[in-house]
Amino acid sequence: MIRYLMLALACAGLLALAPGHEARSEEKDSDKDTKEFFNGKDLTGWEGLDKYWSVKDGAIVGLTEEDPKHNTFLCSKKKYKDFELSFKIRLKDAVGNSGVQVRSKVLDDKKYTVGGPQGDIGQVYWGSLYGENFGGMMKQAPEALVKKALKPTDFNDYYIKCVGQHCTIKLNGETTVDADFPKAPDTGIIAFQLHAGGSMEVIFKDIKFKNLSAK
After folding, report:
1. What torsion do the CA atoms of 92, 94, 95, 100 make, to the nearest 10 degrees?
2. 21 near 15, Cβ under 8 Å?
3. Distance between CA atoms of 96 and 88, rounded to whole angstroms?
4. Second label for 203, Cα 20 to 30 Å away, from 21, 85, 87, 135?
5. How would you class 135 by CB atoms within 10 Å of its CB: exposed for 0-12, middle for 13-18, buried for 19 or more?
6. What pLDDT digit, counting tens, does each position of 49-96 carry?
7. How much is the pTM?
8. Residues 6 or more apart from 136 whose CB is under 8 A from it?
9. Residues forming a β-bridge with 116
């Protein structure tokens, strides 16, 4: 009986060391991080102007039927340091402007305006890093690269990675930003944007998040 028990324990140890086991463990951690970031059902853990934001079919939807007169954001209640974030994004009919704030802060909790770095979404600014109430353009994506990669009226793959002062942004697999930003905050909220200027609809779906900071 003891011999069989020792054999079972040995097999379990070999399984833990087997190729693919570590990858599966990382996948489970990533799934956990994603669910803690956005549960896919409602806006638990997020705050913003309720009339503009909803969850439909597992996606975050921002909709303004008239000009809000100011940029407004759906903001995470939790702050994040190092992370990877990916999602699919569509501006309906290529109308409007959006973005994703990283390591930012809420400036006005009545309007939900924010300040900090933003992965920009819209016009020629897709894939750029812009300082929302934080000094303006930090690194503009190459316009020719954006025109080549962008699907204006369809869903686009968007990727943001922040580690230390380094930020990487990819649009449909093309790297548009990959540089150090010494003035970037060490930590802060993540927030999705609805831009002033008119009515618009933006959809963020297939959201995946991985916390790269020590837990």
Report:
1. 80
2. yes
3. 16
4. 135
5. exposed
6. 999 999 999 999 999 999 999 999 999 999 999 999 999 999 999 999
7. 0.88
8. 130
9. 132
